[in-house]
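Sequence only, no structure available. Ideas?
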Amino acid sequence: MSENLKVIIVEDDPMVAHVNKRYLEKVPGMSLAGVFANGRLAIQYLEKNKVDLAVLDVYMPELNGLELLRLMRGQGLQTEVIMVTAANDSKQVDEFLKLGVVDYLVKPFSEDRFIEALKKCQARIRMAVSGDELTQQAIDRLLGTRGGQEQTAPAKFQKEPIDMPKGLQSATLEVILNALADGQSNYRDCEELASIVGLSRVTVRRYLNHLVEKGQVESSVDYDTGGRPSVKYKLK
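Reply:
I predicted one. Tokens follow.
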């Protein structure tokens, strides 16, 4: 998935909308498709345009966030949603979660928390459309959990994209590069990387071989394994 994810902000407070827009601009791979002051304007846009993510406020004129979300789901719109609101009572939070929001931010929130929500949503969308066979770990990541703890895909690795051969996905490549980046200067073998990213060893090895061919990753054979030699990898 090479093109940017399209995002709309639905917020009636111009100052809050401006801040959300500024935070959004700090996340590579996302682009702002529009800002709407109420849910009525937003649904009119959503009915005619594909949007990957909507950042919704709850309290708005004409059509509030909850009404908008119900309408979206009723029309079969699968747009991911992050709620941004001062409302935090348990019944309302539960209702939004049942409607499939990917995150729920209570005002006031920090810049880091907002960006974390955006990156979590970004990773969820990209992994879902990657087309790769998913292990339990990858499925847990899509659901936002692993062992009961919330997870976000790493987003530390920032390099120019490289050409992708047929059958490989840029989103999966980014996840593997991030796993290598987290290892800093240490070599990691295919089995360890597969465990980290939640994909099969066969899939991970295909991406690693591609990265080695492109000169972005170096490999080394470890003969001190007590058995069959192991190929290990690290970023150049």
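Residues 146-161 have pLDDT under 50 and may be disordered.
Hope that gets you unstuck.
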